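Model it.
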Amino acid sequence: MTENPQVTAPVKPCQQCDAMAALGLLTCQCESITNPLEKIQCQHILKPLENGTESAVNTIKKMIIDQGSDKFNETLDRLDMIIYSATEQAKEELIKQGKLNKDGTLR
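Modeled.
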């Protein structure tokens, strides 16, 4: 297995965690589809993962092949935006609570 250079710390194996993370990401991708038939096709790809008969990696692979890497990257960008916004808001709140310095570093 090749190492992912973007992973900064080892992640403990958790198939159910992987499935839930993939379902959230891929459901978002399906929801962005406006064509009803294409949306149904996208949702069909999720069924084996929802039923526990397919791995998160295999389902994501199928989605990339079916929807294209550009569409998948758009979904990842959306998730990155959400995580960034939540992180910034949490930082602001932690500064207000006195748990972080004004520059965002730990006290």
